[in-house]
Amino acid sequence: NAIAQGQxxxxxxxxxxxxxxxxxxxEGYEQSKNDNEVLTVRKQYDExxxxxxxxxxxxxxxxxxxxxxxxLLREQLNAIxxxxxxxxxxxxxxxxxxxxxxxELYSTEMKQMQQDLSVIRQALxxx
Length: 127
Fold this sequence. Notes:
By secondary structure, the protein is mainly alpha-helical. Helix content is 98%, strand content 0%.
């Protein structure tokens, strides 16, 4: 009976050892699977960091170009405004000159008309 119990205990121990070996094997598989997942995630993380660095460089370049374009547009706008101001000043001067010229013509014509009227009155008074 004791032998049978000893043999039974041996069988139970062997069964437990097999289960333990299976558990260790399964744990090893799970650990290996987890390690592979960690490596995959780490690789994806590294790729994302690399990609984000590339995107950051591209964004900086775009911002620099936008700033350069803004400065060029500002310079062009300032040049256009200066040309407009110059044209307005020139136009204003021409308008003043034309006004002065027409005022002189008007004054000369008025004097001539007054002289003509004076001559006509004198002629009428004599007759």
